[in-house]
Design goal:
Elements: H1 4-10, H2 18-36, H3 58-67, H4 85-91, H5 98-101, E1 106-107, H6 117-126, E2 131-132
Helix pairs in contact: 1-4
Length: about 130
């Protein structure tokens, strides 16, 4: 599980300071204005382009091994967001309605060394019973 809204708002593993968050919002606001004026949207980095190599970050490599290989990749599904979509994620938590679905059974499958493990653990704590890991 990957909580994109949390990652965009607070940085990976809550690494953003309040100054980082404000700076990012300012940059996104500037880009929105540029797009309004007719500039092309900027895409966020995929960090796992087709043709990745042994020097690719392990997280990017794992992502790329699945999403960037020719047998999965499709040009209409580029696995990227525009830079300006960050603001929507930062202003609306994707988990704000978790309680409306967590009255149903939820099974969390978490790999021991997954870099995104903390997202699932956080959601597990927020969800209601019945739940299981």
């Amino acid at each position: 599980m990957y909580d994109i809204s949390c990652s965009e708002t607070y940085g990976f593993k809550d690494s953003f300071t309040e100054e980082d968050r404000i700076k990012k919002l300012d940059e996104v606001a500037e880009q929105r204005y540029l797009e309004f004026m007719g500039n092309e949207p900027i895409l966020n980095s995929r960090e796992s382009p087709i043709g990745f190599d042994d020097n690719t970050d392990p997280i990017g490599r794992e992502f790329g091994e699945f999403y960037s290989t020719p047998w999965v990749y499709h040009p209409n599904s580029i696995t990227q967001f525009t830079m300006t979509s960050s603001m929507s994620f930062m202003n609306f938590s994707l988990l704000s309605h978790l309680k409306s679905i967590s009255s149903r059974p939820i099974l969390f499958v978490i790999l021991e060394h997954a870099h995104s493990r903390y997202f699932s653990e956080d959601v597990y704590e927020l969800s209601l019973e019945p739940r299981d890991i």
